[in-house]
Amino acid sequence: MTNIIFVCLGNICRSPMAEFILKDMAEKAGLSDRFHIESAAVSTEEYGNPVYPPARRKLAEHGIGCTGKTARQLRREDYERFDLIIGMDAGNLRGIRRICGGDPADKVRLLLDYAGRPGQEVADPWYTGDFEAAWRDIEAGCRGLLEEIAHG
Ligand code: 4NP
User: Which of 46, 73, 78, 151 has CB 3.0 to 4.6 Å from 10, enough for a Cys bridge?
Assistant: First the structure.
């Protein structure tokens, strides 16, 4: 079992998209029982809010639901519960390390590391409104991550 938590600033756009895209990919690959997948925020800004409607619509275009997900903040104890803590941008990584007290077990990654684009950040739709660009980046990262865990 690989325990994965995706992290972004608000937990209403990028990280829930990654959570539900990877769950869908794992299910389609018959690998659901190999994964436990969640998502969380570094901020408290959107605490308790559902997935942002444009992000929800982008998932729905691809037949992916996200019903019931509400934003929560990353907690220090998540560092022990998860094997991989995957941020969307450099600011997320700073927030993860602040909340978790560093990264002593080397669990923190950027999503696009798995897309062959190390150090790059997922296109942030909050400021651009471009949820298609976010979808492409997140889909590529999740595909590489699934590949690495399934066959790596
Ligand atoms: P997310 O998007 O981090 O991808 O969920 C954002 C959501 C909320 C805010 C920023 C980004 N905000 O500033 O409230």
Answer: 46
- The model's pLDDT over 19-58, given as tens digits with 9 standing for 90+, comes to 999 999 999 999 999 999 999 999 999 999 999 999 999 9
Calculate how far, in angstroms, residue 33's C-alpha sits from the geometric centre of ligand 1. Answer: 30
Strand residue runs (E) in the chain? 2-8, 35-41, 84-87, 108-110
As annotated, the active-site residues are: 8, 14, 124
Query: Residue 87 in contact with residue 145, Cβ under 8 Å?
Result: no
- 12 CB within 6 A, ligand 1: yes
Does ligand 1 have an atom closer than 6 angstroms to the CB of 126? yes
Residues 6+ apart with CB under 8 A from 145: 4, 22, 86, 111, 114
Q: Are 58 and 137 in contact (CB under 8 A)?
A: no
Pocket test for ligand 1, best of 9, 66, 138 (most atoms within 8 A of CB): 9
